[in-house]
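hey so i finaly got around to running the thing on CRAL-TRIO domain-containing protein from Hibiscus sabdariffa. pasting the sequence first so u can double check i didnt mess up the copy paste, my clipboard has been acting weird all day
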Amino acid sequence: MRCLPAQNLLSFLKSSILLVEMFLRRKHAQKDDPEQRDSKVSELRAAIGPLSGRSSKYCTDACLRRYLEARNWNVDKAKKMLEETLKWRSTYKPEEILWHEVAHEGETGKASRANFHDLQGRTVLIMRPGMQNSTSAEGNIRHLVYLLENATMNLAEGQEQMSWLIDFTGFSLNTSVPIKTARDSIYILQGHYPERLAVAFLYNPPKIFEAFYKATRYFLDSKTVEKVKFVYPKNKDSVELMKIYFDVENLPSEFGGTRMLKYDHEEFSRLMAQDDVKTAKFWGVDEKHHHIANGNGHSVAEVAPQPALIAQQAS
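ok and heres what it spat out for the 3d tokens, dont ask me to read them lol
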């Protein structure tokens, strides 16, 4: 086999690199082109075929865009991912989980929806792993799924993502969930709620958490890893990063803010019971309207306020 002269080989390599760069630029430009994206959405919608009922309500254009984004705008991969979610939703029925079914998991305030938003107007979930009160894998997962559905239903019009604040006060290996539960939770978040997470701030995690995170980050895709931000009170840069996303006057003191916030389980249960009515009406779960209980076990179907106009959005 004849060898190319060094000069010709160098020229060939340069040309090859230029061709690759041109291809990547064109591919990136196509992905960012609104018309190309709209075309991909239409292509994905045609690929999944006719839908009915809740699947049709779930698969808004915004929903399809999230699945395409999660799969780098590859229609075939996005189709497979979406079909898996539709199958999961048809059997797990996350939209039918009621607060009173998972309220015992939230008694300590280990996870809840905040009553404030980030600077982009996104719904905020607050996690307190140091307040873990259950060893039930299924209970922990159903509680998380309920909160993900609830956070989604409370997104502002045109908003598709939420932010997480995770407070590590009191965290220890004794209070951490098992690796398998963490893995299963990550699978559901990434597989069935793609591109719902905007950012997750891990505030002041102890060194002992590093081992736990190293064990679980293998289950995270690269996009999710980029959204995880470690914040330490003594690290000025990480504290400043928080200020990009949050108004310090809204932030609870345990996250470096100025606001005093104490979790009130009875009040939160009342709000969630009202949200259950809105959720049931949105998804057409009429048969459960008169079985939704408030924190005191009484029906709220007759007294809950009418739901505000909910933008078409996937959960």
